[in-house]
Amino acid sequence: MRSITRAGRRPIALAAGLLLVAFSAAPALACGGLIGPNGAVNLLRTTTFAGYHDGVEHYVTAFQFAGGGGAFGSLTPLPGIPTSVEKGGDWTLQRLVRETDPVPEADFARLAAAPSGSAEVLMQVKIDALDITVLKGGAAEVGTWATDHGFRLPPDAPEVLDFYAQRSPIFLAAAFDGDAAIARGQNIGDGTPVHISIPTNNPWVPLRILSLGKTQSEVVQADVYMLTDDSPAMLPYPDGSNGMTLQHSAPASDQLLSDLRSDRGMDWIPDKGWLTKIAIDAEAPQLSYDLAVDVSGAKAPSRVAAGLEMPGATDPAVMAAIRWFAGMSFIGLGIGAVIWLIAKQRIDSGLRPA
Amino acid sequence: MRTIGLILASVGVAVLAAVWAAGPARGGASTSAEISIHFSHYTPSEIVATAGVPLRVTIVNTDPIDHEWLVGDAAFHQRHRTGTEQQHGARPNEVSLGPGESKTTTVVFDTPGDYLYICHLPGHEAYGMVGVLKVLPAS
Q1: Which residues contact A45 (CB under 8 A, 6 or more apart)?
Q2: What is the mean pLDDT of residues A230-248?
Q3: Average pLDDT of the residues in B19-27
Q4: How far is B13 from A77, CA to CA, in rounded Å?
Q5: Cβ contact B23–A157 (<8 Å)
């Protein structure tokens, strides 16, 4: 029988890019998806910014309050241990949207007001109504930690957590307290931007996580902005056939860089940069990869970072082929040995003196 | 005699190699079975019992999330799809498992037929947490 508590709460949405679903007691929320008590997902388009400069990746994403009470949460896979998790700037995401998709002021205002939507604890931060915990552990440890802390993970969570934990054991858990948000006077549509700084060799954007908890027929929609020093090499390349479309790729304008730099915590923005916008519009099963990026100039994004192969993993089909080949070799050797021994015995018998 | 021994040893190596090359053995158990839950799927997804004969089933949940193993006929599952019971355990054909937990139960089905085992936690059945217990007529 269903074990989920069917509390009749009004839904709260944490519109967060790159976030893994985590159910709490009732409706839960996800990477841009609102999970209702019956498990239905109401898709929301989310926006995330991944900037990279001086060896540090800067994620900026927003948790949007959509009304209601109760506690909800989410998990985000990270490529490394963050040096800081802090409240993000107030307008960075909106400014990026405006750069690539200029909209009339009135429409923009309407969109902003609409409700869009036992691991090792490395860091704990409270940002407004968000309790954020950075965890280190394998899929089982992180999943168990989440379960122990009231997260209700969807059925694909074990596999998805494993998909990420094999490559990086760092996760960010965010528990959103709807009651605290109400107490703080947050209104529906108010977002809590979060800025995560992570030293890495190359930027990386987890995408498969966006499909978590979604059925085969559901669609994932999201916008990912990247700001890198130079034009990035990406894997998979967003060619439109894989659920990703490259919608913008050009040097960032001085005005954009200046505007971004003036936001909270964004003084790291360089004088020059390359702005990339990728639109995700994929059926959930299609989104089986992450976005690997190479900004080194080698133009060789990592297949492991893209999730196209696992570190040290061996393809079961390859293993089966090796097993078959080795087995056949042993069989051949055995049969050959039998034939040789029988022949040898006959020769010995024939040569034996009468 | 030494040569015959070598021949037998060679044949043995060949047989062992053939068995190894064929991969893990597959098959059902009639009086006991172990079912592993991994990535929200049952393995094996089919077990076999004999009508009227108790089947001892050990379910091993290797996932870090809750799961269920509920076995019964179509009407049984229809009830559970809309049920509200949070934990199972009072009945041998209804088992709830926490993360990493293992439990053993014994079930008996007197009527031959196919009985599905399903996890009815939200979304789990649709995700593929379905298996079948085939109950064969007693000979």
Answers
A1: A32, A116, A117, A221, A222, A223
A2: 95
A3: 45
A4: 48
A5: no
Contact predicate B31/B55, CB 8 Å: yes
Contact between chains at A3 and B21 (C-beta distance less than 8 A)? no
Confidence check: pLDDT of A67 > 70: no
Plot region of A136 (φ>0 → left; ψ -120 to 50 → alpha; else → beta): beta
Nearest to A139 among B20, B64, B126 (CB): B64
By residue range, what is the domain housing residue B36? 32-136
Would B74 be classed as within a structural domain? yes
Contacts of A154 in chain B (CB under 8 A): 122-123, 127
Nearest chain B Cα distance for residue A323, angstroms: 5
Residues A205-234 pLDDT 10s: 999 988 888 888 888 888 999 999 999 999
Contacts of A146 in chain B (CB under 8 A): 64
Domain with A328, as residue range(s), is 314-354
Rounded Cα–Cα distance for residues A275 and A95 (Å) = 12
**Residue A123: its pLDDT value, please?**
92
Residue A235: which CATH number? 2.60.250
Contact B85 A4 (CB under 8 A): no
Residues A11-42 have pLDDT tens digits of 222 233 333 333 332 222 222 223 332 333 33
Tell me, yes or no, whether A103 and A252 share the same domain: yes
Give the CATH number of the domain where residue B43 resides: 2.60.40.420
- Residue A6 inside a domain? The answer is no
